[in-house]
Amino acid sequence: MKKTVFILGVATLFSMTAFAEDSPGLKTDKAPPPPHKMEDGYRGMEDARSSTIQDVKSMHDGASVSLHGNLVKKESEDSYLLRDKTGEINVVIPLALFDGKSVSPDELVGISGSLDKKQQPAFIRVTHFQKQ
Question: In whole angstroms, what is the distance from residue 115 CA to residue 91 CA?
Fold first, then answer.
């Protein structure tokens, strides 16, 4: 009797998986809404609030920043000078973030990262880089 109850219990447990959906995860049967119809959610750097270099220089150490500007000069291996209409600031961009793209000084770029004011002059450690 106990064996029968045990076997029925185990059989019921394994049969539950038969009622599960065939493909868990993202369903691709419907198209997402176009970007202009989305009401909330992060849609990338172009929607992030962008500051000016003048604003960034007055922020606290470790602040998350987003800037648009031009890389005008290469200072060292990973260090560049970023310029916008309000000023210039040093940025550290690892080569991997360029993702094989080359950028000239006349091209607009967008960066996101954190402000480091522990060393003078202050600089930005870039975590996201986008060629506009």
Answer: 9
CA pair distance 105, 90, nearest whole angstrom: 14
- Residue 36 falls inside a structural domain: no
Polymer length of the chain = 132
* CB 41 within 8 Å of CB 73: no
The pLDDT of residue 7 is 78
Q: Which two tokens stand for residue 73?
A: 């000069």
Q: What is the CATH number of the domain that holds 124?
A: 2.40.50.200
Tell me how far apart the terminal alpha carbons of the chain are, to the nearest angstrom.
73
Summarised one tens digit per residue, pLDDT across range 51-104 is: 889 999 999 999 999 999 899 888 888 899 998 888 899 999 998 888 888 888
Number of domains in the chain: 1
Round to whole Å and give the CA distance between 61 and 72. 24
Residue with tokens 């690892």: 94
